[in-house]
Amino acid sequence: MFGLYRRFRRGRLVERPLPDAWLGYLGEHVPFFADLDGELRGRFLDYLKIFVWEKHWIAAGGMEITDEVKVVIAAAAVRLALHLDMTIYDRLTEIVVYPSHYKHPDDDEGIIFGEAQDWGTVVLSWEAVVQGLANPRDGHDTATHEFAHVLDRNDGSFDGTPELRAFGDYRPWAEVMSRHFLALRDRERDERRVLRDYGATNEAEFFAVATESFFEKPRQMKERTPDLYEEMMRFYGFDPADGREVAAPRKKRRRKKHRTR
Q: 258: which strand partners?
């Protein structure tokens, strides 16, 4: 019953007109938006409305939550969902935004740029979000990283394996991801030319870092780690190196805390 209500509510959100200012925010801060056209552009904007108007936005550390902040952060989230489905964010309820990096009280782990939490919350530094999107080719994007953790958490844990499209996808996924995670941990050249060293922290961080590189350095990943690229492409339903959709948006088949520095 709740699922039916959610679909009805989202349908009503999509029917609302897109505010004129949103296209300006996308043009200023979201370079990949210019590459979308036709049906994909329309789907992106529909998903953007849902994310902006459905999630709860919370200011922290003196931050002011404006439509610009919501739209830019939502754009990073929607890019991951564009060839999946917005149900991947069903358990995400709130976005907390700081103006810049932050620290937790009584925490010695240093400054934090973003984190995804067990209970449906993503925390982000607005400065890190803007900087991450501004350079779309460096493989370092805080918002993309944290929303990848949200996808990972959907199957119950932060373990580097999100809910895949088909049961048969899990074995090749595990084999390929494990091999490249260990190669990055061993500081092998091809992996380090594609992936940030932070991905060697654990399997969950590896998936998040691989997601950053998949969208921002697709040609390098496809050339140097083609089997890793193939697994990411199969999951996300998109070939960013060629700019083509490879799978229709999936339908929902059926839930720790991570920080990025």
A: 116
